[in-house]
Model the fold of this input.
Amino acid sequence: MYMGFITVQDIVKEYSGTKALNNVSIDVEAGSIFGLLGPNGAGKTTLIRIINQILAPDSGKVLFNGEPISASHIGRIGYLPEERGLYKKMKVGEQVVYLAQLKGMSKSIATEKLKAWFQKFEIESWWDRNVDELSKGMQQKVQFIVTILHEPELLILDEPFSGFDPINANVIKQEILALKEKGLTIILSTHTMSSVEELCDSIALINKGNKILDGKVQDIKQKYSTNSYEIKCSGWFDTMASTLTHNYQIIEHQKEGNITTVTLKLLNEIPTNDLIRHFTNLGNVIAFKEILPSMNDIFIDVVGETNQQSQA
Amino acid sequence: MKKIKLIIQREYLTRVKKTSFFIMSILGPLLIAGIFIVPLWLQKIESEQVKNIAVIDESGILVTTLQSTENVVFTDMGKMTLDEAQKGFAKSEYYAVLFIPKNILNSTAVQVFSNRQPDFGLKQYIAKLIERDLETLKLLKSNVNPDLLKAVQTPIFVQTIKWTSDGKEVEVTMEMKTIIGTVASALIYIFIFFYGSQVMRGVVEEKVNRIVEIIISSVRPLQLMIGKIAGIMLVGLTQFALWIVITFSVVWMAQVTLFPEPAVPTIANQTATIDSKVMAQVQALGQDDYQYALDIFGSVSNVNWTLMIVCFLFFFVCGYLLYASMFAAIGSAVDSETDTQQFVLPITIPMVITLVMIQVILNNPDGSIAFWMSMIPFTSPIAMMARIPFGVPIWEVVLSSTILIVSIILMAKLAAKIYRTGILMYGKKITFRELAKWIRYSS
Done:
């Protein structure tokens, strides 16, 4: 079995009779971004809290780089919880230094690094202000800095983009990618499926305490591909409908000026070359691409399917 | 350990730096010192002032017998009428006009007129004088020799003296012990309640601000709870130390400036032989309230302040730890401060009951109510502080402390279990049954 940087094995966590997590296992490869997906109340936060040692599992274990996770790993993890805030009546600078010290940093190093980060995010002027004077987005930035300040090897981000405007969300996104470049392993829990596609290498989908899907994003997309293709052609295409007959199903057919765009689904296992050949007979093919389902579609499909199964 | 220290530091500094802490540190002692000083000071001013009383005696019986003293001077106005007196009063130097009606022997009322509110002491004094004089007159009328009556009157003064373990006789007036017991128990109640609820508010704040999860990803919930409770305890102790220092300085300064002569009887005087002491007290009995107040003030120095302070510190720390654990558990269970009410009420009832029962305890400091209340851990800190000035058998103190400490350990364990579940729980209606469930969760 492959050993990742973080390995979660057969975790079970029960709250007064209901299973928040039922034998969940995940494997997070070192240096990758791992998406933890699932509807509200699926058990994502419970799993994240178990990895952070905030909660203890009823059974199962978590391995950090091969070793059973323990208090000594706390300083190597950066955690941005979904429910996050700051002390309102405390100076920003004082507070971030305090939080960094709790992670085990010395006061002087923490101060020095924090000043650098504050400069980078252009919020130096906020150092001596009270937190309650900061906008929500500002507070989120401060929290993000606190999460990554102690240079953790593992970053766990629970809904990191909530509360950010698109510009700042992008700043954070770029920062996450930069951290991945540096070799950090990142677990990302989010509902924003577009960011999953942009950022994640692998995902696990959890629903009602059970893992229902996991793997590399590309593999999953292939697996759930519907054999659909988009073809762009220029030329005379009136005869298309009659010639396509029983092998294909046209999903969409658009014509803009001289350019025709067709989205279709292959009904039989025929090579795509045959499809292209068919079109080259009709006109000039400009573009041809496979249409993979979005993570959003897969999410809705898979979750909907399992919910139906459990009801049946 | 290092992390707990950091938490303690933050909890302590953020509170000590607040303006409200500074104000409390100044106001508290002034209030306490005021309780001791102001009545004395007022009486001193009163007694130094000479009051001229104009007397209009229509009966003509009493004006000759009214004796002037250093502070109160009676002047006979002769045949002046009340109307005339009223007209001339504003320009005169008289403090008041005493009007004695013609039929004074049959009635029981005299009248005092003044352009200000005549003080209570003067009213009492005049009543006492006229009473005495009329009594004498009536006795003479009935052919009873007033000297005979004086001879049979036997005032009894009961002096309470305590034999200390080292064989000394120390007298502290019961009044003083009662005052100190009341103040000490009220103070410990305020301290425990105030700082205990600070813990609760701190926990609620962390939960409402949603910072708690950030913190407990770095430290264990138990560390956070211990750090908070310890930090706020240090704030309380700092406050107490400031109060002690400031109170004693203010009292000392007041003594030096307001009562320059050694008006306060020394311990040597107090422990003088019983005979002379009784005599002195009997003589003092008829004297005015000023002397009485000075006596009480004097026995302040006979109170074992070191014992009082040590006991206060011990019972504050223990009582606080017990209640702070409960308050922390409550704070963790609720979503906002307004939700705390239903839980705070039941846990503060024992403290409030003790406070209500204080008079009973003070009246009989060795009685069974006093005893049992100082054994029950929820009431013992307050009950004990009320009893300490009267002296409590050492075995009772040891037993009470042991019960208290064991209870703290048990309570802290329960609280920690509720706390660690509660701080991560949002949007759930919490009941006592729910809390009991949390206690049973495995870690």
Summary: Chain A touches chain B through 28 residues (CB under 8 Å).
